[in-house]
Amino acid sequence: MTTVFSWAIGNLERETGDGYVYTAHYSVSAKSAAYSAGAYGSIGFERPDSLIPYSDLTEAIVVQWVKDALTEEKVEQIEEALQNQLDEQAAPTKAAGVPWS
Asked: CA–CA distance from 45 to each of 9, 23, 59 (Å)?
C-alpha cells in the first residue's frame, strides 16, 4: 500500500515593507487507499541575507523553506507519525465497546 504525502502552505505572515516572510503555517496530508491523516503546524524563519520578492514566491518554494527549517529528521518523524495513523486505521489495535447487546 503506497502512501502519498502532500505538503501545503495555508498562510504566510510577512512584513509589508519588504515582503520578508517570518512565519509559515503548513499542513501535511497522508493518503493511502481509503485512509487519510493530517497534521498542521507553524514555523518561523530568520531573516535571510537576500529576499525573494513576495510576489515571486510559490508554494513549492515555501514548502521547501518549511522542510529545511524543520530538518530532514523532523520531516521524517511527521510523515512516520502520519503513516502510523494510517496503519492504525487499516488494522486497528485498539477498540471500544461492550461484548453484549
From this structure: 14, 6, 15
